[in-house]
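Quick one: WD40 repeat domain-containing protein from Phytohabitans aurantiacus, structure tokens please.
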Amino acid sequence: MATVSTVAVSLCLVGCGSPDEPAPLDGTDVITTPSPSAPPTADPPTDPEIDRARQILGGAQISPDGRYSVTGDGDRVVIRTASGTEFDWFGTGSDWQVGAEFSPDGQRLAVGVQDAVVLYDFATKDPHAVMYPIGGDHLTKPRFSGDGAHLVVEEFDKARNGRFVVFDVRTERPVTSPYPPYIEVSSDPGKIWYASELAVFDGGAKVVAAGEDGFLLWSTRSQTFDWVPCGCRGELAAVDRAGRHVAFGARDGSISMWTVSGPTEVKRWKPPGSGEGAGPPTLTFTEDGRHLLSKAGKDGYVWSVPEGKLVGSWRDAGA
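--- reply ---
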């Protein structure tokens, strides 16, 4: 146990990709509603990647190899083995915890607290606080890059859109963005846009931040932003770890899938049983980015990426 430049903004329009890319949607296309071969079942998918994503969608924090899980308890972080035995715990010095993230190789754990990210090393059982003098109110949930070499967080600022910070995990050196352009949620004027999920990729050179209405692309080298509106009235968003795809869940239950490179909307569809008043589905990608999981109520679905083809479903116990 232990204690521990000028912003260049360009508006990326739908349909600006090459002729070889999938045709974008312009709002007049028919939103498809796939029909599953069978209703959601009580048994979860058996694929390990999908099963882990399903548990994460339900709020669990599980290591990529399934060996460990982590929970917060006041100012303590408790790590348990798959059998439920306590492996270790450490104090963060703050009961304000904004999420935990395992590195893809399972060797580290990052825990976001109000003004720092605590990095825990499983080999040494050593938690180490990476301090950062934030300009906003607090930091948001951290996210590792696919190779585990970088970590990205957002500075939450209730008065305006927050900045983003990328840490080099080895040197702990931060690269901080300028403040992004002022963005409001289109369906709620005056409501400030914040990211639902982040991804850092290309060796720490790029960050995608997905949230209501669209996503931001930040180049850490040129310190510039691109704002990409989705036009789908998305309220919840997810981005795969490699920064290839972004998915949005809309109030009517529909899902919009985008490629980050382009950028282009690939497909928009409604899961079975969704409709007006259904509310936005919660979303997460599998670690390998090959599947997207959506869940509304107790019914969950597994979709191929980026085609949005229904490949599996489940129903939580007690439905």
